[in-house]
Amino acid sequence: MTRVVVTGLGIISPFGRGRAAALDSLRNARSGVRTIRSVDTTLLSCRIAGEYPDELTEHRGHDRFTRFALIAAEEAAAQAGELGLAPERIGVLIGTGLGGAETQDANYRRLYAEGGRIHPMGIPMSMYNAASSAVSTKLGAKGVSYAVVSACASSAHAIGLAAQAIRSGQADAVFAGGADAPIAVGIVKAWEALRVLAVDNEHPEEACRPFSADRKGLVLAEGAAVFVLESEENAKRRGAEILGEISGFGATSDAGHITDPSADGAARAMRLALADAQLDTVDYINAHGTGTKANDATETAAIHAVFGANVPPVSSTKSMHGHAMGASGAIEIASSLLALRDGFLPPTINLRNRDAACDLDYVDNEPRPSRATTFLSNSFGFGGMNAVVAINIAPFLR
Predict the structure, then answer these.
(1) Is 152 one of the annotated active-site residues of the chain?
(2) What is the pLDDT of residues 74-92, one digit of tens each?
(3) Staple partner for 276: which of 44, 53, 115, 248, CB 3.0–4.6 Å?
């Protein structure tokens, strides 16, 4: 079977731009949640988010989520180097939960509040496949390319499907990941209506508290992470540095409640990923870990069901970067890959008081030195969409 490896990684997130900024924040348990500055928060009760801290200056003419995807893809491409493949053998799969939210919000404001005209490029800027299209155009990738939309599991699905495309021979390399930019007034108000946001406007860096008894909900975030995936054969042929292997992928549907999570659906996805990777266990799990009452307890139960008495350390990097919707899985895989290759497990910060229903080792508050080489990344989305990716870095450590 064709082995699928990672040779490039790009990330832009609340930690800042690039791999170095993300690794520094993870190593120092530094939160990227802050007071929102990119939009007017007058109408909002929740005025905090995992917001990219700097001004975006390039790729104007695209929606914010597409700009994030382009920046991350360019960093990944630069690290991977020349692929040595025909453009028709290179694909692009970018997951997103909300697509061009910035453009849609601005258009509705112009139309309903100001009586103005819709931007003539409103549709191509806001469509869900705008990021995939822009990345394929920018990088000249003419192979299999599309958007993946499955709420908060979108980018994990995109990465898993990209690996399957390479395994099956549909492509030799794929730029895969996710991008979302949900910090728009209408989107934040809609999340407020669901009553699942953590509102702590005075102490934003402490707002996201996965697995803590005093957790109040999730914190919206934005950003993108994109990987260069290719066959191990091609990577070795061209002498590329290999960062790790996408060794397994599991996807399930709860076929149940549209917002309430299912321990059974999550557990089945983890088992499928382990089986695909031919692993009985892993050294670490990056949890979906949203900080909501329902998710954290349900995910803990699912992990117990899969691993029994031998549960590996678990953490939620969302505690530091927030929940970037469809981009969250990619950002979490990137965070885990960077941390494990640097010799530590990323922590769950703001874990103050243990909930009786959340009784695992969550790498509380501080990073932990570790020689872990295998991990699962869990992503569970509204609509009962579950995706789990297994990664192995052991064969490629120098």
Answers:
(1) yes
(2) 999 999 999 999 999 999 9
(3) 248
